[in-house]
Structure formats: C-alpha cells, structure tokens
Amino acid sequence: MVLEPPHLDPTAGAAAAIDEVVYANVFEGLTRIDQNGGVQPSLATSWTISDDGMTYTFTLKEGVTFHDGTGFDADDVVFTYDRARAEDSTNAQKGIFAPITSVTAVDPSTIEIKIAQPQGDFLFNIGRGDAVIVAPESAETNQSNPVGTGPFKFVQWDQGSRVILEKNPNYTGTPAFMNKARFVFISDPNAAQNAMLAGDVDGFANFPAPESLAIFEADPRYQVVRGSTEGETILSTNNAKAPFNDKRVRQAIAHALDRQAIIDGAMFGYGTPIGTHFAPHHPYYEDLLDTYPRDIERAKALLAEAGYPEGFEATFKLPPPTYARRGGQIIAAQLREIGIELELINVEWGQWLEDVFKTKNYDLSIVSHVEPFDIGIYANPDYYFQYDNVVFQAIIEKLNVTANEAKREQLARAAQRILTEDAVNGYLFQLAKTGVWNTNLEGMWPNSPVEGNDLTAVRWTN
Question: Fewer beta carbons below 10 Å: N end or C end of the chain?
C-alpha cells in the first residue's frame, strides 16, 4: 500500500488506508459490499424491510465469535450503532447513522433498526467500513489492536513498516485461502517498483508509479489490472479562508486548470477528467466538464474583479500519493499563469489528517475522496472544505430520504450542478485503479467500489 493507516479502527477515522487493511479482512458489518458494488449478507444472513421502508429486521449469523473469544450477538450490534451515532462519536461517516431512530435486540440473533424516513441506500451504507460491528470488550483498543469477527486475525503492526494478519481458524463463513497476509507501506514510486521487481511484494492494489506499468506488462511474472475507483481527485479548497471565500477566485482557478495535462503529467494518462464531485461510471453522473473551459484571460479577469489584479500568494499542502506530489507541481505551474504563486509544502499522511482535514489549517491541497456516493459531505459546513450553502444542504437532505430512483437521480444531478457552479473545489479526475500482481495470484478486485483490499478470495494458483 502507498499509505500507512494512522490507526486500525475503521469506525473512528477518515483515512481510507484503515479500511484498505481491515475491511472484510478483520472486521465485518451486517452487510458487505462485493467487488461489483452489490450488497451481500455478512453478519446478517437475511433481512426484511417493512412496507413503509422504515423498519429493517435482520437475522444474525449464529455461532460467531470475535477474535478474542468473546461471543457475537444482537447486543454487539446495538452497542456498535449506538456508539457510532452518539453525540461524542468519532465516526467519520456519522451521516450513515443519522436516519436511525432506534436499534433493538429482539433476541440474541435478531436485530430491529428503525429509521425516520425511507433510505434508498441504507443497506449499502451499513456495509461500509464505518459500520462494521465491534465489541464493547475491545472497542476502545481497536485502534492499535483490532478485534473483529472476520476471516483474518490481527497479529502485529510494526509502525512505519507493515501490518501482519493471519487466518482465523474459528471463522464461521467461507474460510480464507491464505494462511497469512502482510501489508507493507511504500509511498515512494521507485521503491514500490523495486520491491515488486525483487519479489519482496506480491501485489500492489494501487501502484504508485504509473510510468512503470509497461515494464510489468512486458514481464510474464506479473499481471497489470486496470479498473476504476470511487476516488474523485480534487484540488481541495478552504472555502472559509480569504481569498478562496470569494467564488470569483475559485472560478478563476477552475478556468486555469488543464485537467488532461495533470492526468498526463502526474498519472501518465491514467484517470478520467471530472467536472464535479461524482464518479463518471455512476448512472447519476452529470457531465459538467465544459462549465469552466481553460481560459487564462477569463481567469485573470475574474481575479481582477475579486480585487486581485496582480494575483496573490498561497500555500499548497501535498500528501504523499503520486497524484498529489506530481500533480501539485503541475497545478502550481498552471496557477502561476494567472498570477497565483503557490508555496508547495510536502506533508506526511498523519500531518495532512491533522492540519488539513481536522484543523483546516490550509489554503489548497490535493486528495482523492474514495468514499462511494459521498457528495453529501458538502452539506456539512464543518467539513474541511468549509462550504456552506443552504440550498445545497436542502437538496442533500431531500436526497437522503428519497427512495424513488428517478427522483434520486434528479436530486443528485442538481447537487452536482450547484457544486460546479460554485467551483467549491477544483475537480480534476477520477482516480484509476492500476494494480500490479504476481501472475500466480488470483482473486484480487479489479475495481474499488468501496475502500478496501478484500483478501478473502485471494489465493495462489501454483
């Protein structure tokens, strides 16, 4: 993996790298998301939905134990969901749980969840990493010693280096093929290439050196897997901080960006241009690429209207991924053409989470938002973009309680148009999934419908 997780509890952190280690491997939810984005049973074997769409009754798998030997039953589901939706919850996706009005253990193997209004994507949302089931006995120490019910058990975390998992001999579902798996963290593209070629690493789900893929394609020891992700790569913008609180400044930046040049220069052509915060492969996607065509003179005029005829200086914090470090240099050159001088500041992932995501101490940054259907984050004015638009918030509120597919699409497209018109962020490209694997390995996911590296079906063929 490129990034090391800050900790290993997916119910208490926003970093996708957490789920990329533990989702479906160590922890399980009531439902799980498969490689095609479909909802499958997990700790719940089946469920029924009331006619009004507001009561879900789940039948739970029996005979399940957590990795520390404690038993799993309906009380653990009540604990997990009440903890996640509590006022002091640190869950990064509390919105998943906001519709819930009650969680009741009918009996040890039956759970009833009531929601305030019908939710079209409720079963999908509770299948994400933020909604995995944890035990009260181990919840407080899951960050350093994760204890779940999944097919792999946590063994060891050598911080700065690796996390080791081993097969759970007491798993009640389909057992994993592998006896042990080792996650190694390599952010440097050259080091990643060398580790693969030397055989030190057997697979890289998101290879950080796209310029080297031809080397692996020509080598019979490897297979290169191209797929899609939910990762909208954006020029993150602090909308509450001058001069970026002026829409004209953000629109000027949008007119200065050359998406294809960024994709070609940073990702060697791997990536799909986007004009809003939405995945192009989703049926609700609205193509808004032409809203702000590259127009340097128009960008300069907008800056002048905003009171910056000579431009201005700003800071640009870049986390470790290739798209950020390389893309940042290209964007800085593009914005220099309209008078915006950026100070490039390389930060490690933990520092990015603290400075940018948590304390909002930044001007501009770059990151891929890999959560599925996450346009709703813009409805939270406290989110790190600090975008506050009551019209947009009303649309998302309505979308969240709408089950009719046609109406959901209409609302989602309206929300996309507002974000693009307001140029909330610089919308760059959808992150491609370019995996490199040993030819003798099979079972890896070609796409990433959710954050995760599900190892349950990965095996050696000889």
Answer: C
What pLDDT shows up at residue 248?
98
**343: enclosing H helix or E strand:** strand 340-346
CB 204 within 8 A of CB 192: yes
- Tell me the C-alpha distance between 381 and 160, whole Å: 34
In contact, 109 and 73? CB cutoff 8 Å: yes
Q: How far, in Å, CA of 27 to CA of 29, rounded?
A: 7
**340-382 residue pLDDT tens:** 999 999 999 999 999 999 999 999 999 999 888 899 999 999 9
The strand pairing partners of 167, in sequence order, are: 152
Is the C-alpha dihedral spanning 455, 456, 461, 462 positive or negative? positive
Res. 261: pLDDT tops 90: yes
d(CA 436, CA 102): 44
Mean pLDDT of 140-159: 98
Residue with tokens 């580790």: 195
What does the pLDDT look like over 96-129, one tens digit per residue? 999 999 999 999 999 999 999 888 789 999 999 9
User: How far apart are the two ends of the chain, measured CA to CA in Å?
Assistant: 24
Closest CA to 263 of 296, 289, 244: 289
Question: Structure tokens of 198?
Answer: 């030397």
User: What is the spatial distance between Cα 149 and Cα 134, in angstroms, rounded to a whole number?
Assistant: 8
Beta strands in 162-244 (DSSP E): 162-167, 180-184, 203-204, 222-237
DSSP state of 377: G
Q: Are 363 and 241 contacting, i.e. CB atoms less than 8 angstroms apart?
A: yes
Which pair of structure tokens corresponds to residue 458?
Answer: 């990965």
Total number of residues shown for the chain: 462
Geometric angle at alpha carbon 206, from 22 and 431, rounded to 5°: 110
- Its pTM stands at 0.83
Tokens at residue 193, please? 């290439």
> How far is it, in rounded angstroms, from Cα 131 to Cα 14?
13
DSSP 146-204: ---SSSEEEEEEETTTEEEEEE-TT-SSSPPS-SEEEEE----HHHHHHHHHTTS-SEE
